[in-house]
Amino acid sequence: MLRLTPFLVLVALLNSLCYPFIALGLTYSPHLTFAALRAIVAGLFLAMIAIALRRPLPTDLRSWLALASIGLGATSFAYFGMFHAAEFVAPGLATVIANSQPLITAVLAFFFLSERLRGLQYAGLCLGFLGIAATSLPQIGGGDQAAFSIGLAYILLSVAGIAISNVLMKSLGRYVDPLIAMAAQLLLGSIPLVALALIFEEPTRIEWTLEFVVALLALALPGTALAYWLWFWLLGHAPLGRVNAFTFLSPVFALILGATFFGEHIGPMTLVGLILTALGVVIVERAALATPTENTVAADPWCDRQRLP
Q: Which DSSP state fits 115?
C-alpha cells in the first residue's frame, strides 16, 4: 500500500484542481459550451485509448441504455450543476461541499441496493453532513446569501446526478469494460449539454486564449481522463475501501489552492467543517472496509472518478 500512496495523493490533487480550472475557463466561454467541450475531449481521449487497447464494446441494448442513463446523471446533470455553481461559489468551498457525494451515495445504496450500513457508518454520515453544514455556515451568514444559495443548489444538483449514476453504475457491474464505460457515458452525457448550449448559448463566443485552452485541456485530460486511468489501476492493486479513504484529501488541497490563488478566506468554522467532513468520509470508508462486501462503484463529483469492479 505504501508504494501506491503517491498515486493516491496525485488522484486527490487532480480532483481538487477541477473547480479552479472551471472558474478560470468560464472567463472565456459560456457555461454549457465549456462543460460540453470538457466531456467531449475527455470522452474521445478515453475512447481512443480503449480502441488502441482493443477493449470490447457492449453488444446488448440494456448496457447501452444503462450507460446513457449514467451519462445523463454523471455528465449531463453533474456538469450542468458544476459549471454553473462555479459562478456563485468559491472553488475551494465548492469542492468541500461536493465531497459530500460519497455520503449521499451510501444513503442511496442503502435504499436501492440493499447495502446495509454499520453503526460506525451512520456516525460517519452524520459527521460528514455536519461538516458540510459547518463549512457552509459562514457563507450563509455572509453578505451575498442569494448568490451562495444559487451556487449551493447547483452543487447539490451536480452531486445528486453523480450519486444516482453511481447506483446505476453498480447495477451495470462487470458487464462493461471500464474504459469503454467511462468514454461512453462522457460522450452520451455530452449530447444534452451540446443541445442546451446550442439553444441557450452562443458557442461561437468562446475566446480561444491560451488560458482557456490550458483550462480545457487540464480539466479534460489530467482532471478526467488521467484521473480515471490512475483510479482503475489503483483499484487493481489495493482494496477499494482503503483506496477510497484518500478522497478526503481533495477538499484539503482545494482549500489550500483556493486560499493561495483565489483569495479564499479559511476561517475557524471552515476548518472545523473540513475536519468533520474528512472524519465522516474516513469513518464511512473504514467501516465499509471492515465489512466483507463486493466492490462498490463510486465517483468523485468534480472530476468524475467513476469506479467499476
A: -
Question: Which of 21-30, 193-202, 261-270 is the least confident region?
Answer: 261-270
Q: For residues 140 and 36, which has the higher predicted lDDT (pLDDT)?
A: 36
Tens of pLDDT, residues 278-297: 787 778 667 665 655 444 44
CA 239 to chain centroid, in Å, comes to 20
Task: Supply the pLDDT for residue 309.
Answer: 35
- What's the longest Cα–Cα distance across the chain? 55
Q: How many helices (H) and strands (E) does the chain have?
A: 14, 0
pLDDT at 180 over 60: yes
**Residue 62 to residues 78, 163, 178, 298: CA-CA distances in angstroms?**
23, 20, 16, 20
Question: What cell numbers appear for 253 in the block?
Answer: 488541497
For residues 157 and 81, give the distance between their C-alpha atoms in angstroms, rounded to a whole number.
6
Rg (C-alpha) for the chain, rounded Å, is 18
CA 211 to chain centre: 23
Given this model, what pLDDT does residue 305 score?
44
Other beta carbons less than 10 A from residue 174's beta carbon: 10
- Nearest residue to 278 via CA among 305, 302, 254: 254
Q: How far apart are CA 260 and CA 117, in angstroms?
A: 38
Chain centre to alpha carbon of residue 34: 16
Q: Chain-centre distance of CA 80, in angstroms?
A: 13
